[in-house]
Design a protein that fits this description.
Blueprint lengths: L9 H15 L3 E12 L5 E6 L4 E6 L16 E11 L4 E11 L4 H15 L17 E6 L4 H13 L4 E6 L7 H15 L4 E6 L13 H9 L4 E5 L7 H5 L2 E2 L3 H8 L3 H36 L3 H40 L6 H65 L1 H6 L4 E3 L17 E5 L4 E5 L7
Parallel strand pairs: 3-5, 6-7, 6-8, 8-9, 9-10
Antiparallel strand pairs: 1-2, 1-4, 2-3, 4-5, 11-12, 12-13
Helix pairs in contact: 3-7, 4-5, 8-10, 9-10
Length: 466
């Protein structure tokens, strides 16, 4: 006979089995392939882990997912740290997953590749979306830590190459908890301020974990949506982040970004000198060409004396022809008159002769007026052409003078001496090094202050830091 105390209910028996499994079987590492992956609305993941012969049910609760950066998929080979248990409600054996990582590749590396492929398929890396740098840089926004060496390196390079641009620092942290959100907020603030011509996102070198904030999707999408051109300068030259692919331009280092964003002032001055020389030569050549053209026009325009002589000669020929024609007419008329006189003796020829004389006089007067009109027309045309030529010469000369004045004013604005004349000064130590910080000078040392009209030599008595 059996003992009544040895009879278990189903739930009691399953609870006993569960306690035995949990107490006797330790947490262990297993390797297998994910299948039947289900992501529940509560955030928990349920899947089977299998090999070539069998499979076991697994549960990965939401709180244990916080260190998983990649996205598990069916068919993926993984390594899990799990504790065995018996799910008493359904009476089946399962594993509670505490840690999950891919086999053959690191957790962060896989997450990096997955996000990279995702954003690339959406077109965030396409060159068609890359914004070019503006030709003129007045204000540079820098997203970095205010206490790090990166911002100091950028300021040093910018002051050396192009001290005319303003630098706006949007302070942030580059790693650790909350760094992604702070970097994104700083980027949005810089972009929406409307003050920055270009924005540099900068950080020093580090491991993949140290640089992970720049591999987050939220920061990548913020860079893509920014209206201001973005330059990424993250880590060393060998370091690559998602932010580098989305940014408009990638610089290998923060210092390289500073060099890339602004021109060299010495190179600008050299180019300005070259442009001034080319402008002067072009002006001289243009003036020479116009002078040559003017000389050619002068040769083509006949002188008034030659015109008068030409028309006088033409008038003489016309007068000769007129006289000859008049004589012919007179001869013909005389012949007709004689014929008429002979035929019409009863009529007096006096009126006919008078009428013919009047017609001849009128024709002679009209001819003289026509000749005078031609001479006056040509004289007026010659005067108008001379006035038009003088106006063209004056206009071209004034235009070249104006262009030369504009270039001279531009050179004056770029002159370092002009900057000093507005009240700025340059302070150097005994080694002739420019002082940009109180850490580069000590008390009792001598400093030199360069003003627009001379130098001041001083001795440091006291140093106060902000």
């Amino acid at each position: 006979m059996f003992n009544i105390d040895e009879i278990y209910t189903i739930s009691s028996f399953l609870s006993l089995c569960n306690k035995t499994i949990e107490n006797k079987i330790p947490t262990c590492w297993l390797q297998g392939e994910i299948s039947n992956l289900v992501r529940s609305a509560s955030g928990h993941w349920y899947f089977s882990l299998k090999d070539s012969k069998t499979q076991v049910r697994c549960a990965l609760f939401r709180l244990n997912q916080r260190h998983i950066k990649f996205d598990p998929e069916n068919g993926m080979e993984v390594l899990v740290q799990a504790a065995p248990t018996l799910y008493e409600v359904r009476s089946y054996f399962q594993l509670i997953i505490q840690h999950l990582e891919p086999v053959g590749v690191g957790n962060l590396n896989l997450a990096f590749e997955q996000l990279k492929n995702k954003l690339a398929s959406e077109g965030l890396f396409d060159n068609a979306h890359k914004k070019p740098l503006p030709n003129t840089i007045n204000t540079i926004g820098v997203i970095s830590s205010s206490t790090g060496a990166v911002i100091r390196d950028i300021i040093k390079v910018l002051n050396h190459r192009y001290p005319f641009a303003d630098i706006l620092l949007f302070d942030s942290i580059a790693q650790g908890q909350g760094s992604v959100q702070k970097l994104t907020n700083a980027l949005n603030a810089a972009d929406q301020s409307g003050k920055c011509d270009v924005i540099i996102i900068a950080r020093g070198g580090g491991s993949l974990e140290d640089l992970w904030a720049f591999n987050e999707e939220v920061l990548a999408r913020a860079i893509f949506k920014a209206r201001t051109p973005i330059i990424s300068a993250i880590g060393h030259e060998t370091d690559t982040t998602i932010a580098d692919f989305v940014a408009d331009i990638r610089a290998p280092t923060p210092s390289a970004a500073a060099i890339l964003v602004v021109p060299d002032r010495l190179e600008l001055l050299t180019n300005t000198d070259k442009l001034y020389t080319q402008l002067h030569r072009s002006y001289q050549q243009t003036l020479h060409d116009y002078q040559s053209g003017l000389n050619q026009l002068k040769l083509r325009i006949p002188s008034p004396n030659r015109q008068i002589a030409f028309f006088s000669q033409k008038l003489d020929h016309t007068n000769i022809n007129l006289n000859s024609h008049a004589k012919s007419i007179l001869t013909l008329n005389n012949a007709k008159l004689i014929s008429l006189f002979s035929a019409l003796k009863q009529h007096s020829p006096i009126e006919t002769i008078k009428h013919s004389k009047v017609l001849n006089q009128v024709s002679f007067t009209q001819l003289k007026d026509k000749i005078k009109q031609i001479i006056n027309t040509n004289n007026n045309a010659l005067h108008l052409a001379n006035e038009k030529l003088q106006k063209i010469i004056t206009t071209l000369t004034d235009k070249q003078k104006t262009t030369l004045s504009i270039q001279a004013n531009s050179l004056h604005h770029l002159s370092p001496l002009n900057t000093l004349s507005r009240g700025f000064s340059i302070t150097t130590n005994a080694k002739n090094q420019v002082l940009s910080s109180t850490t580069n000078i000590k008390t009792n040392q001598t400093i030199t202050t360069q003003l627009a009209d001379g130098k001041l030599y001083s001795k440091i008595e006291k140093i106060e830091k902000n």
